[in-house]
Design goal:
The complex is a heterodimer of chains A (274) and B (237). In chain A, 45% of the residues lie in helices and 15% in strands. By secondary structure, chain A is an alpha/beta fold. The longest helix of chain A has 14 residues. Chain A is globular. The chains are: A alpha/beta (274), B alpha/beta (237).
């Protein structure tokens, strides 16, 4: 049984691509067969973050238009056998994507993989709506600041109305991944707190990824942070998020956050893992 | 192919559907320059207020005093990019040979709206008004429009979302977006919310933006109602 998971946010620059690569790698490290699909046609980045930019021959648009077969376009990760990448085209734009074409590619990917991670482009236009269209599950990436939170709220509204699952009357599970979080700044009131964001978005928290230089270093080296430095706080947060997605770990509920339990929970677990 | 040559039966069936739309009604008053100044202030305070909303102009108050000012007012409204869809309170003959001639003759919304309002006032308590229940939050960018009666939201109304109701609006959560009540029931409508953090609230034809109420009410449970042609906000205890 395969799961199509869209990683989306509305706003750009919040960490969708980094999170797609890190979650994809973490799921693959847990033994799942994973493909990460770049839907950002025209502005592809996922190949860089995953260190596969020199191996791209065919891409998503080629497969959709029938110029290449799916296995020709899939790039298997050199570090993790169970992780693959379906890159986007850099020379085309989002109009090259069609709903029927995306549906066919997703159906084909479902036969080969346990997890299909769709890295959505920013915005609410065609690329983003097609990335979420066939999802079984959504990860909403949000930064603790007001514009990112409002854009995420807008995206949640679209996830509840424009996906195939939602149109069939079956609510799409949505999880919040709070990235670039700095608890010191939040406690000084310079940044929104986890509880503030959860209060507005009202969806379960998949994880909180703290702001750390490791993330940028890993991206620049073309290696998902969960592979590059598995002991960094960010890598552990992604690994824990992956365990939650696999049902191996509990979600952090809203009440627990209100009781101030989240940090002790996260850090307590982290210490236990270390 | 000329139309006559077509077999009548080959023509597609014409589908006509009815649709209710909500128009904002503007009723200019004397002195006109002061009224336009107030309108400009509203538009600059809340730039999206009239955006793409149909507007009906009620000229009854103006025409009693100075019938010749009708054209000035209509020109003034059009120059502010308002989407005029109707003109009320004026004899269509007076707008003959102006671009607004058809606007005056096609709309007869006045009688219907008066009737609707009178009915709602005389409403038999045994037959409750219809209401709409939204069992979850209203997300940013979503617009809930329910002209027939009250709207209840079990959750928050996000910043950038709007709820528009014919009657009252009940929000069991924070109101961070816009809430406009009383489109049908008029001044007797109210707005209730668990936390007032709204961008804009309105009842009947009155509205206020967040800067009109101070920090004492912000974030608190509140109710909004009409009191002698003014919006009154008060904390709910």
């Amino acid at each position: 049984m395969s799961t199509v998971m869209v990683v989306t946010s509305g706003k750009g620059g919040v960490g969708k691509t980094t999170s797609s690569a890190a979650l994809g790698a973490a799921l693959a490290q847990a033994g799942q067969n994973v493909v990460v699909v770049d839907f950002d046609v025209g502005l592809r980045n996922l190949d860089l973050v995953m260190g596969a930019e020199r191996r791209v021959v065919f891409d998503l648009v080629n497969v959709i238009q029938g110029d290449a077969k799916l296995p020709q376009a899939l790039i298997r990760d050199k570090r993790l056998e169970t992780l693959s990448l379906l890159p986007a085209s850099q020379t085309r734009d989002k109009d090259a994507l069609t709903e029927a074409g995306v549906a066919r590619v997703i159906a084909e990917l479902r036969e080969r993989f346990d997890w299909i991670v769709c890295d959505s482009p920013a915005g609410i236009e065609k690329g983003a709506t097609l990335a979420m269209r066939f999802a079984d599950l959504a990860v909403v990436v949000t930064n603790p600041e007001v514009s990112s939170v409002r854009d995420s709220d807008r995206i949640i509204g679209l996830l509840d109305s424009k996906t195939v699952r939602a149109e069939a009357g079956d609510p799409l599970p949505k999880h919040l991944l709070l990235t670039r979080y700095d608890s010191a700044r939040a406690s000084r009131g310079e940044m929104m707190k986890v509880a503030d964001v959860l209060e507005i978005l009202a969806i379960p928290l998949l994880g909180t990824v703290v702001e750390t230089p490791d993330v940028l270093t890993a991206s620049n080296l073309g290696c998902p942070v969960t592979l590059h430095n598995p002991n960094s706080p960010a890598a552990r947060a992604y690994a824990q998020a992956a365990r939650r997605l696999l049902g191996h770990d509990h979600f952090v509920g809203r009440q627990q956050v209100r009781r101030g339990g989240i940090m002790s929970r996260l850090f307590g677990k982290r210490r236990a893992a270390a | 192919m000329p139309i006559e040559a077509l077999d009548r039966t080959s023509l597609p069936g014409l589908r006509v559907r009815g649709r209710n739309v909500i128009a904002l009604v503007l009723a200019p008053e004397f002195p006109i320059s002061a009224w336009f100044a107030a309108l400009d202030r509203q538009i600059s305070n809340v730039p999206g207020f009239f955006a793409d909303r149909p507007v009906v102009v009620d000229l009854a108050a103006i025409l009693e005093g100075a019938p010749e000012s009708a054209l000035v007012i209509l020109e003034g409204l059009e120059s502010r990019d308002l989407r005029l869809v109707g003109v009320e309170g004026v004899d269509p003959v007076r707008l003959e040979a102006t671009p607004w001639r058809r606007l005056a003759s096609i709309l007869n919304g006045r009688d219907i709206s008066l009737e609707g309002r009178a009915q709602s006032r005389r409403r038999d308590l045994a037959t409750p008004a219809p209401s709409l229940l939204i069992d979850g939050p209203v997300r940013s960018g979503q617009s809930v429009v329910f002209e027939a009666g009250d709207v209840t939201v079990v959750g928050a109304v996000a910043s950038g979302a709007e709820v528009i109701a014919g009657g009252s609006i009940h929000i069991y959560g924070a109101l961070r977006g816009r809430a406009l009540a009383g489109l049908k029931s008029g001044a007797e409508a109210r707005i209730f919310c668990r936390a007032l953090e709204a961008e804009m609230i309105g009842i009947d034809r009155l509205y206020r933006t967040a800067e009109h109420w101070g920090p004492p009410l912000h974030g608190r449970p509140a109710q909004v109602r009409c009191d002698r042609d003014a919006l009154k906000l008060s904390p709910l205890v």
